[in-house]
Write a structure and sequence with these properties.
It is a single chain. It contains 18 helices and 13 strands. It has helices at residues 9-16, 19-22, 78-94, 125-141, 143-146, 159-164, 173-199, 254-264, 270-273, 313-320, 342-357, 365-381, 398-416, 421-431, 437-447, 452-468, 478-498, 503-510, and strands at residues 26-37, 40-41, 59-61, 67-71, 100-101, 151-156, 204-206, 218-220, 223-225, 301-304, 324-330, 388-391, 394-397. Strand 12 and strand 13 (394-397) form a beta hairpin. The radius of gyration is 22 Å and the shape is globular.
């Protein structure tokens, strides 16, 4: 089948009943969470029982030694994704002694920022690169923001999709891939607020984040909150950086996206020049540019290539094109021991397919600003059913826009073979905001008279007990994860022994075009 480049691909697929082309897309999940003990952040090194954070492909660290990251394989069977992530949690719980996994996106109370140990990865040049990048993040944006945890959801269309659809016979699959995935990335920007409403799970912030209550928030017990907030993590009070709102990165095409990121990773910032590159102890940042690397750009969604190497992301994309979309605006669901419900794994698939097939005009500066403002409004006030957003310059009730979008997503759910009851439940959450994750979380804090600290500690202990009473034999991935631990320690040693260049030379070559 051949689709016209300019037509609405959503209409095309629905007209052709092409469920066989999209029903086996692959999903992978990357989940961050903090190691704690008795509800307090740990300042100990990454446990050796979990292998090398540098080389273990399933269990690593993100910004700090205590911020774990679990990475699943990509699966077409969505239940296998859930099972794999659950098995990683089980394996980790059995191998971290008395430590627990914090179930909330915001960290527990932190008395001293020295408690946050920046991650280390060994003595190799690659380890120094990863460490230097994280030290740079701390110096640029502060440590506290960097340990707010979330979920990254990776989606790719099945191979048969690209075999079955090309814009015209002269175009290569690579070009079609890049174009369709960028359609998706633009529509994700337009509709990110919808996911914040349904999956937002951070309506509160622990008081240790701010000395005084921010003007838009209220104060209760040991936390700040907004009555109608959905995801303060994705607001200006969370994993955001006001300086980056001024950076212009185009989502018109891979070529323009690459060009803009290359400019930002090569152009020095007067603000970051003040930090310098070295002090007497260690590197303070990889460089003084607006972005140390393209990974520093805090986009809610990114194009990614699946090449397994330590090359820069932008080089992989330019050489091989886009393999999948990484969607990053997902809070940890505290009511799931793996941080995300199975039904929402399915809901996100519907959403990303919808965004990729729906008509997607290029974004101008006004719409970029409009999209950012819509997400900001919903993150702070999304459960207010009178909330008004802006769509193409026109005011619209958020609830009306959400209902229309859910209706447009229903045929996609049918093509994917997903039960319509899933979207019916989302419609109910629109009518009753207290049923959303953020609404339920605030209700728990209020009705149970929990403090923020007590809620997180109670849930972390509950989930730990569930995992500790589960047998190893019931974990179908336990042996695979154990082998990965042992292999990762060996591989780290190999990398360290194979280094021949100085770190300075290694860094120069890393940034070469």
């Amino acid at each position: 089948m051949t689709a016209n480049k300019h037509e609405n691909l959503l209409d095309y697929f629905l007209a052709n009943k092409s469920n066989d082309l999209i029903s086996n897309g692959k999903i992978g999940i990357e989940k961050e969470c903090l190691r704690v003990r008795q509800g307090h952040l740990l300042n100990s090194s990454h446990p050796k029982e979990l292998g090398s954070a540098l080389c273990n492909k399933y269990i690593t660290t993100d910004f700090s030694e205590s911020l774990l990251e679990f990475v699943t394989e990509p699966f077409s069977d969505k239940d296998k994704v859930r099972l794999f992530l659950d098995d990683i949690h089980h394996f980790v719980s059995l191998n971290i002694g008395d430590d627990k996994l914090w179930p909330l996106s915001y960290p527990p109370h932190i008395d001293n920022l020295d408690e946050i140990l920046i991650a280390e990865y060994g003595t190799s040049n690659l380890a120094k690169l990863k460490r230097g990048y994280r030290v740079g993040l701390a110096n640029r944006y502060g440590k506290q923001m960097q340990i707010i945890a979330g979920i990254h959801y990776n989606y790719s269309f099945p191979d048969i999709f690209w075999e079955g659809i090309n814009f015209d016979q002269s175009k290569e699959q690579l070009s079609a891939k890049n174009e369709i995935y960028f359609r998706g990335l633009r529509n994700i920007q337009r509709l990110n607020w919808l996911i914040l409403y349904f999956l937002g799970a951070s309506p509160v912030i622990p008081k240790s984040f701010y000395e005084k209550c921010p003007p838009e928030l209220n104060e209760r017990n040991d936390f700040y909150f907004s009555q109608y907030a959905t995801s303060l993590r994705m607001s200006k009070y969370g994993y955001q950086n006001i300086n980056q709102t001024k950076l212009n990165v185009s989502f018109d095409s891979l070529e323009k996206y690459s060009e803009d990121l290359n400019f930002l990773t090569k152009t020095s910032s007067k603000e970051f020049e003040k930090i310098g590159n070295y002090n007497s102890r260690e590197i303070q940042q990889l460089n003084t540019n607006y972005l140390q690397t393209e990974d520093e750009y805090y986009s809610i969604a990114r194009p990614k290539n699946s090449e397994q190497s330590d090359r820069r992301t932008i080089k992989k994309l330019n050489d091989h094109g886009i393999d999948y979309i990484e969607y990053r605006a997902i809070d940890l669901n505290p009511f799931s021991r793996i941080g995300i419900k199975y039904e929402d794994i399915l809901f996100l698939e519907i959403f990303l397919v919808y965004c990729s097939l729906k008509e997607s005009p290029l974004l101008d500066k006004d719409e970029v600003s409009e999209n950012y403002n819509n997400s900001s409004l919903v993150s702070l006030s999304g459960r207010d059913l009178k909330l008004i957003l802006s769509r193409q310059g026109q005011s619209i009730f958020m609830k009306d826009w959400a209902e229309k979008t859910l209706d447009e997503m229903r045929p996609i759910a049918d093509l994917l073979g997903i039960n319509k009851e899933l979207l019916d439940k989302k419609s109910e959450e629109l009518e009753s905001p207290e049923k959303t994750i953020s609404g339920r979380m605030l209700e728990s804090l209020s009705q149970e008279n929990f403090s923020y600290q007590e809620l997180g500690t109670s849930l972390s202990e509950k989930y730990s007990e569930e995992y500790l009473t589960k047998n190893k034999e019931d974990n179908v991935h336990y042996d695979l994860l154990q082998i990965s631990v042992e292999k990762s320690l060996f591989n780290q040693l190999q990398i360290e022994q194979s280094d021949k260049d100085t770190f300075k030379k290694y860094l120069e070559e890393y940034f070469l075009d």
